[in-house]
Every structure is written in structure tokens, then in C-alpha cells.
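anyone seen this seq b4? input:
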Amino acid sequence: MKNFVIMSAAVALSLLGTGCATHKYVAKTVAPIKQEADEAQAKNAEQDKTISTQGTEIQELDRDLSRTKEQLKDTDNKATQAAEAARAADQKAAGAQSAADNAQQAANGAKTFAEQGLDRLGKTIDGMNKYQMAKSETVLFKVNSDKLTDEGKQQLDDLAKQAQGLDRFVIEIQGFTDKTGSPSYNDMLSERRAESVARYLTTQYKIPVRNITMLGEGYAMPVADDKTREGRKQNRRVEVKLWVPETESARNVPSGPGER
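predicted toks r here
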């Protein structure tokens, strides 16, 4: 456009040189061209202004874009930190769950152990409250006598020695007679025979009296025919029984030979 204006001016100057006649013609010709040049220059200025404004806007957009990128980067960092925190929380939760599971298993084991212990204790108590006979001896007496024979003492020795090794026991003593004599006399005689056995155990072996039960029953429970000599001999007796708790019996009392 500028080159066109220069060329137009050159033409105009050349025409001026031809004379005044053409002066007006040149002026009329150049004026529109100049006007167009001015308008073009004004448009160029406006365009430059527009371009400058757009450049400013582009710069602002660049700055906004940079800020947006920074915000996105910061948001991404925060999201990464949040994800790491979430993973750490998951790990802690998993560790807590594992600890809780272990604690539950330990509690279950302790409960089972306690239940088993209570069951064993219950069985032990039941066994201590339930007695069974560990040994029995039948001591015979002579006619109308409550004196122990040597054989009878030997029998009591065996029973007493076994009782001395026990923590808990009861010795049951029952005295009997044959049918000879009155029932009242026989009752007293059976009691004296039972007392003789109890006295021997307490004096010779220090068996506590609290561990002895004693009863004279006269001719209440014959074990043989009282019409014969041998039958009456078997009926003149004291039955001595050693009772122990079931748990004590299983632990300390020998079984097999020796029980009668």
C-alpha cells in the first residue's frame, strides 16, 4: 500500500511539471488516493491496535493457562498424597484387623483352655466327692470275745499301711455277732468288737478318728449258716473297708492282689 502511495505521488509530481492545466486534474486524482491511503493507514493502525490487544489477551491466556497448569499440578500432588495416605490407612487397618484376629484367636484359645481347665476341675471335684472301696478286710473274733487275734492285727496292719499313703480316705468299721445270746447283748458285743478295731488303728498307726466311721450291728447281717460251727465263726466278725475318692484311688491306691 505504501509503495502504491509513493508511486501515485511520483506521478502527481510529474504531472505538476506539465503545467497548471493539469494541476487541478492531479489534485482531484491524488486526493482520493490520499484519502484511501489515510483510510488504509487508519485501518492498519486499528489492526495494529487490535493485534496488540489480542497479543495482550493471548499473554493473559498464557498466564491463566500457566496458573491452571500449576493448579492442576498442585491438585495432582494433593491427589497423590491423598492416595498414599489412603494406602497407609489401609495398611494400618489391615494391621489392626490382623491384630484383632490374633487377639480373638488368643481369646478363643484362652477360653478353650479355661473351659478345659474347668472341666478337669469339675471332674476332679466329682471324683473327690465320689468314693470307691480300695481295700476290704474281714477280721474274725472268738466266741464272746472282742479281743483282736494276731491274724486280725496282721490284716489291720496291711490296711492301715495302705491308708497312710493317702491324702483323703474313710475307714468304715462294722461289727457283727452270731446268733448266740440275746439281741441286746449281741449289739453291745458287736460295738465292742468294732471299737477294738478302731482303737488299734488309731493307737498303732495314728489314723485320725475323723476318718473312721464305726457301727455295731449285732446279728443283723449273717454271712453264713449260724447253725454250724463254721457258720457261726464266719458271723463273729468285723468288716473293715477302706474308701478313697475316685481321683485318689486312680493316683495312689494299688490294685490287684491284696484286696479281700
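Residues 202 and 209 are 7 Å apart (CA to CA). DSSP finds six helices and four strands in the chain. kinda curious what u guys think
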